[in-house]
Write a structure and sequence with these properties.
42% of the residues lie in helices and 16% in strands. The chain is α+β, with helices and mostly antiparallel strands and 442 residues long.
């Protein structure tokens, strides 16, 4: 207890130097870096890019310097569905379009929450959580589904990427500042009961958010012509579509409501549904609710959907035990404990409870390899372009999936009867600062 004495510091130095293995490890780490020195090349034998179940899809997308992995991975699920149904595997939907509407809708939800919490002090923990979340560009599948259900879809060529959609930091920072400033006025008007002025000011705020988004991203088109040549060379043209009409017509048998968010958060009770209103991005839209289940149930549901020919979106902590160059993902990829001579291992529940574990990224499962009914590895479609992994595809071991994946999105028909029955249970509300495995992914 207390301060470190000089005598203690000297003893620690002697203790370190007395072990030759420490000096060897230090030389290796200082020369090549911690991760390179700890790299375990033995894992490559179990991460070969060969899969017993594999979807036939085209090239990967690239979110570049943006926090839109949740939109890219969500739209990847839809574009693979569209590609299979209409035989056009490299068709891409506009990520900028849904991103535009997310900025407006999320600002509206933020303003409403600031009004609802107006009588709470600014340093109230819930108020602070919402203020911290202002301007964020990360999200989840149900948030993307809310946007698609309301605004539909566009082909990428109808609202293409631009500098600001590819590099979102400046826009996110400015929106956060603007929304926080607006929150102060909204709170004062709500506290003094000036309902008419409050409504007028909120409308002005939304008009300004729209203006900011339109300048940065461009205005979304109201109509477009669907035009493409399919994989058989057949030319297709459908003129004068709205984004909403396009989705309803071409995804008539793709019911967004059938797809559920499954959580694996062992720091919370299994068999319960959890709701965190911080992520409710559309006022009046579907609330963001996840069913918490053991990891084996997430694995089996994801595998069943893949075998049925459909991709699976999942949230994960991508920077843990992952190598960008090879695209390998395995808990033993970097043996840092062995290199540093300490034990840093924590359970998944403890990582979530201490926020050492976070869902930081969304990707798509597009293949799996089994041995006697047990999944060994997964083929993962990332949205970082073709220069990472195997032309943009990563190989993930089942053990990595169990440790660092926190959600999957599956059609409820692939759940057990018991799990399906749980979908009718009322959700448990959790506070914005609680980590139930749906921390915003980028």
């Amino acid at each position: 207890m207390g301060a470190i004495s000089l005598q203690t510091a000297a003893a620690l130095a002697d203790q370190f130097a007395a072990k030759p293995e420490n000096l060897a490890a230090s030389r290796a780490a200082r020369r090549s870096g911690l991760q390179a020195a700890a790299f375990n090349d033995h894992v490559t034998a179990k991460l070969q890019p060969v899969f017993s179940t594999e979807l036939k899809i085209g090239t990967v997308t690239n979110q570049k310097h943006s926090g839109r992995c949740w939109e890219f991975s969500s739209l990847n699920v839809l574009r693979h569905y569209f590609g299979q149904k209409y035989q056009v595997k490299n068709f891409v939907f506009s990520q900028a379009y849904n991103f535009f509407w997310d900025k407006l809708e999320r600002a509206n939800a933020f303003y409403d929450k600031m009004i609802a919490l107006a009588n709470q002090p600014l340093d109230d923990r819930e108020v602070r959580a919402w203020l911290d979340f202002a301007g964020e560009d990360g999200g989840l599948w149900p948030m993307a589904a809310n946007l698609i259900a309301k605004y539909g879809l566009l082909p990428a060529y109808a609202m293409p990427e631009n500098f600001n959609s590819n590099n979102t930091a400046a826009l996110a920072s400015y929106l956060a500042k603007k929304e926080r400033k607006d929150a102060l006025t909204l709170r004062k008007l709500a506290q003094t009961g000036q309902a008419d002025q409050l409504a007028a000011f909120k409308q002005q705020c939304l008009s300004e958010i729209y203006q900011i988004a339109a300048i940065a991203l461009g205005q979304p088109p109201k109509t477009f012509d669907l035009e493409y040549r399919d994989d058989k060379g057949q030319y297709n043209l459908d003129k004068g579509l709205t984004p909403q009409r396009f989705f309803k017509k071409y995804f008539a048998d793709f019911n967004l409501d059938d797809y559920v968010l499954l959580l694996n958060a062992p720091n919370f009770d299994y068999g319960k549904r959890y709701h965190q209103d911080l992520y409710d991005n559309i006022v009046g839209g579907a609330p963001i609710v996840g069913l918490n289940l053991p990891m084996e149930e997430l694995t089996q549901a994801a595998l069943a959907q893949l075998k049925a020919g459909q991709a699976v979106q999942f949230s994960n902590d991508v920077m843990q035990q992952m190598d960008r160059q090879t695209g390998f993902m395995d808990p033993d990829l970097y043996e840092l404990d062995a290199l540093l001579g300490v034990n840093s291992q924590m359970s998944k529940a403890d990582r979530l409870a201490t926020r050492e574990g976070l869902a930081t990224h969304d990707m798509t499962l597009v293949g799996a390899d089994e041995d006697q009914g047990q999944v060994k590895r997964w083929k993962v479609e990332n949205s970082w372009g073709e220069e990472h992994g195997h032309k943009g595809f990563f190989v993930m071991s089942q053990s990595w999936f169990e440790q660092y994946a926190y959600t999957v999105i599956v059609n409820k028909k692939f759940l057990s009867a018991k799990a399906q029955a749980l979908l009718n249970e009322p959700p448990v509300d959790v506070k914005p600062w609680e980590n139930v495995g749906i921390s915003w992914a980028k």
